[in-house]
Specification:
The protein contains 19 helices and five strands. The chain has a five-stranded parallel sheet with strand order 3-2-1-4-5, with helices on both faces. It is elongated. It has about 450 residues and is of the alpha/beta class. The structure holds flavin-adenine dinucleotide.
Length: about 450
């Protein structure tokens, strides 16, 4: 005999967990309530406070449309409203007399403030608030060194993370029993956000994310360890935006990737930065390890870096990939970031803000965590590490096809000069519409 539900009506508040597979909050709501109300609030706070990314706005709109059709296929719906998330949820709770709100945990300062306000609003309406896992493989804070609230160094975290108990992967609920009468509300349009976006940005949604994983893992997972740094080969999963918006579950990916250690380790890096951000909510703004850096201000150099006109081909290729695709390969992100902070001496926050404007996967924890790692203010155990960009370019883009793909002015230049156009003769350089390296004019390091 089926177990009687313990709730009459439960609101499942979606935030950045836009999927039906392996969604503990949705699963529990469907297992315990007679009526389940999947709910999303288009909160103007995000467009006014978060970086105005057209790529993310479009990806979000597509992900919501996909989620709605997955829920409809299960006799449910996605109910959408605009306004303050807490206010709109409290209003819905009052209107339906909901017994509980269920949602997925998150780590940002905003998410935590939202949670605290929502807890008060629910308590005032005699409604329970349940927070479930699902954003990371292992919840932030679930493992910690003795006497501390988080791991500051990756390797010991990785060792504990691998041995931590993982919850079971949940299937999508077969039926999401929706309310009898409630207006569904309009979904945002993927094109009407009025902000610039990249022509090659990924298409959002759980369906697209799962299809990408199935296709990519069948072809590339096995060789990921050797191939993930091959810049022109572009053989990483490109699942980061799907992970950021929760269109795919990190736990489900980790389970299906096992025992491929190199790939699972990358998912662990993601968890690592999330547990640092949970313990240091100011990570996107403040140095994790202040070391007295004195950053330069140089608006012209910042602009040249943003447009991909620094005169260092591997950096310019990365920066133009960002504008064209809303995505950059990890190795290229590291090199472009390193150039900004270690060669130009500019503040990592300038770079992180531009990445956040354009990356479809822009994520407070991963973006700030990685920028601080490169800048030497974060969790790198070698904070003075400095990449030799030319050596890195020859190593990871040996025939130059990554650079040629994004920097057409250099299409006719062959390696090794392609990665060092300043070594061409004066006459050859004059024929190229390509700048001299920006950092050479600075008396800043080597
Ligand atoms: C300066 C800088 C800024 C970055 N900003 C972001 C960001 O805003 N959002 C973001 O998701 N990643 C960020 N990264 C990490 C990494 O570059 C991307 O996650 C990765 O390139 C995404 O490509 P992929 O999905 O093909 O990765 P894959 O190589 O296929 O890896 C699988 C998944 O593992 C996770 N992952 C891989 N590398 C890292 C890493 N170094 N840190 C954390 N998670 C990782 C991602 O979720 C990724 O999707 C940044 C890295 C640098 C150096």
């Amino acid at each position: 005999m089926a177990r009687a539900p313990s709730y009459d009506t439960v609101v499942v508040l979606f935030t950045r967990d836009l999927r039906v597979h392996d969604h503990p909050a949705l699963w529990r709501a469907c297992a315990t309530a007679r009526t389940v109300v999947p709910f999303f609030v288009m909160d103007p706070w995000f467009s006014s406070h978060a970086p105005a990314s057209g790529n993310r706005a479009a990806f979000l709109a597509e992900s919501l449309a996909d989620l709605r059709s997955s829920l409809r296929a299960r006799h449910g719906n996605l109910f959408v409203r605009s306004g303050d998330t807490v206010g709109a949820t409290a209003e819905l709770v009052a209107k339906l007399g909901a017994d509980a709100v269920m949602m997925t945990e998150d780590v940002s300062k905003l998410a935590r403030a939202r949670h605290d306000r929502l807890a008060r609003a629910c308590a005032a309406r005699d409604c329970r608030l349940e927070v479930h896992p699902g954003t990371t493989v292992v919840s932030p804070g679930a493992i910690a060194p003795a006497g501390k609230d988080h791991y500051a160094v990756f390797t010991p975290y990785w060792r504990q993370w691998r041995n931590a108990p993982w919850r079971r992967v949940l299937p999508a609920p077969r039926r999401v029993p929706g309310p009898a009468r409630l207006a569904a509300g309009r979904l945002p349009s993927p094109t009407a956000h009025g902000r610039p976006s990249s022509p090659g940005r990924p298409t959002g949604g759980e369906t697209a994310g799962r299809a990408r994983w199935a296709r990519w893992s069948a072809r590339h997972l096995e060789a990921y360890g050797e191939a993930h740094d091959d810049l022109p080969g572009d053989r990483t999963s490109r699942l980061s935006a799907y992970l950021h918006f929760g269109c795919v579950s990190p736990l489900e990916l980790a389970r299906s990737a096992e025992p491929n250690e190199p790939f699972v380790r990358q998912l662990c890096w993601r968890d690592f930065h999330h547990q640092v951000a949970a313990a240091h909510p100011d990570l996107p703004r403040r140095d994790y390890r202040p070391r007295g850096h004195r950053w330069r201000r140089d608006p012209a150099a910042e602009d040249a870096w943003r447009c991909g006109r620094t005169g260092v081909p591997i950096v310019d290729a990365a920066m133009r990939q960002l504008l064209a695709e809303g995505f950059v390969h990890n190795r290229a992100r590291m090199l472009a970031a390193s150039y900004l902070v270690k060669d130009l001496g500019l503040d990592w926050r300038v770079g992180a803000a531009h990445f956040a404007d354009w990356l479809t996967d822009a994520d407070l924890a991963n973006n700030a965590g990685n920028w601080q790692w490169v800048a030497g203010t974060g969790n790198d155990t070698r904070p003075n590490r400095r990449f030799n960009l030319v050596r890195q370019a020859h190593r990871f883009d040996p025939d130059g096809s990554y650079v040629r793909r994004y920097v057409p002015e250099l299409a006719g230049v062959k390696p090794p000069h392609l990665h060092e156009p300043w070594r061409l003769s004066v006459l050859e350089r004059k024929r190229l519409d390509y700048p001299a390296p920006l950092h050479r004019g600075l008396n800043w390091g080597g």
